[in-house]
Amino acid sequence: MSWKRRLLIASSCVAALVVSAGGWVITQHDFDIREQRVTITGGAQPLQGTLALPKQGDDPFGLVVFVHGDGAATADRDEFYRPIWESFAAAGYASLSWDKPGVAGAQGNWLDQTMHDRAVETEAAIAWARGRSEIDAGRIGLWGISQAGWVMPEVAVRHPELRFMIAVGTAVDWIRQGEYNLRAELRERHATDDELSAQLRRREAGVALLREGASYDRYRATTTDSPPMSEDRWRFVSKNYQSDITEILPQLKVPTLLLLGERDLNVDVAETARVYRDSVPANLLTVKTFPGASHNIVKFDLDKPDGLRPLLVALFAPRSLYAPGYLDTLREYVAHRLNH
Prior knowledge:
Elements: H1 3-13, H2 15-20, H3 22-28, E1 33-40, E2 47-54, E3 61-67, H4 82-90, E4 93-98, H5 115-130, E5 135-145, H6 152-158, E6 165-168, H7 174-188, H8 193-212, H9 216-222, H10 231-240, E7 256-261, H11 269-279, E8 285-290, H12 308-316, H13 326-337
Parallel strand pairs: 3-4, 3-5, 5-6, 6-7, 7-8
Antiparallel strand pairs: 1-2, 2-4
Helix pairs in contact: 1-12, 4-13, 7-8
């Protein structure tokens, strides 16, 4: 369920409270940024995006280019990015993000993309931004989450002039990440050993089909997935399941901040931290793990698909969704990069 839909549900559930506390809600969602809807040209198709500029200070501003994780994402990830944009703005940086192809009326279909396609798309956005008068072309960096970990390193290797790369909850190997995610979620809900074994066998059968280059019809005929992937999703996974950044990370020349949640159920953060430390020169790498934080660096008990409390926090105090220190870490890191 999207954050926007969850916010709407929360609003309905507490309508009377919102009426009495309307001023507070408005204040909490009044972020210290100026948003512009923009059309990013130069790539495979025009991208419908948002450029979030600081309210204070004089341009040209530095820029953080956002790279989404998996899923159908709007430019602001259903408002989830706004506290992050505000943190970067406090350090004198604008933020640029866009609706994925096929989302919110945008051209194309993000499920047709490979990770390489997404890297090329990101490069096109960087080139477009360098032509904007309000952007300092010499102070551009990347922020990306989850699946962006298979996109940003390719971009950063080809563009060592970038000021930084901020990787949030990124994985190393697509196949290992998927198995870790399955095991972690089953463990979280206290699944039995028999259920775990059955789910792992199901997963192994699906991976075998991918390695054989099986058609969607064969996948539907032989899989026990419930529900099965859509045909678009099967095609997307078939194109990308071999993604692995092990060989590209040693080529990085860009300062990198790796941010991880201690209670990440999606990604094996211990593996990610180890591989980054083994691959990226120590003088370029900063790693920080947030206790009690989820994959999104949100407080673990608030990063739930359902439940009234997470919805109320998102509505009345959106900045407090994030793990303590996360937004400050982002602001401080890019502020430091202004002069380096």
